[in-house]
Amino acid sequence: MLALEKAVVSSGLEHSLIELVKTRASQLNGCAFCIDMHTRDALKAGEAPARLFLLDAWREAPQYTPRERAALAWTEALTLVARTHAPDADYAGLLPHFSEEEIVKLSLLIATINAWNRLAIGFRAVPAAGQVA
Fold it and tell me: Which residues of 74-113 are buried (b: 16+ CB within 10 A; e: fewer)?
């Protein structure tokens, strides 16, 4: 898992996009630990708080670029694959914004955060924000 994480972080995808994808998948999976970690990481990296507040409603919010929107749609498609079956339209939506190599990297990113979410939820990881000092 750590090797996958290292590959994802050094994939060449924008750090801001990586954190948006990680946060959105974590929201969909209900992983409080990962939501807390990735929103904190995004804020430290300079992400606008409003974009994080609106991430759950990204389709209605104008704050996201077309590239980010395509990535977020693909994040939802793969995270909820049992329900969505990864629609052709969502894949096609990636093509104007990502190279084939970037689509592979993005898909690996999504698969990796989904695995981390399942581990964090399964092992009852507690968000730092919820820990009592």
Answer: bbbbbbeeeeeeeeeebbebbeebbeeebbebbbebbebb
* Residue 49, both tokens: 């708080």
Parse the chain into domains and list their residue ranges.
Answer: 2-126
The predicted model scores a pTM of 0.94
Distance CA 17, CA 13 (A): 7
For residue 91, the 8-state DSSP code is: H
CATH 1.20.1290.10 for domain 2-126? yes
Q: In angstroms, rounded to a whole number, what is the distance separating the alpha carbons of residues 29 and 9?
A: 21
CA 95 to chain centre: 18
The model's pLDDT over 79-128, given as tens digits with 9 standing for 90+, comes to: 999 999 999 999 999 999 999 999 999 999 999 999 999 999 999 999 98
Measure CA 115 to chain center: 12
The backbone region for 101, taken as left when phi is positive above 0, alpha when psi lies in -120 to 50, beta otherwise, is alpha
The predicted-structure confidence for 61-81, as pLDDT tens digits, reads as follows 999 999 999 999 999 999 999
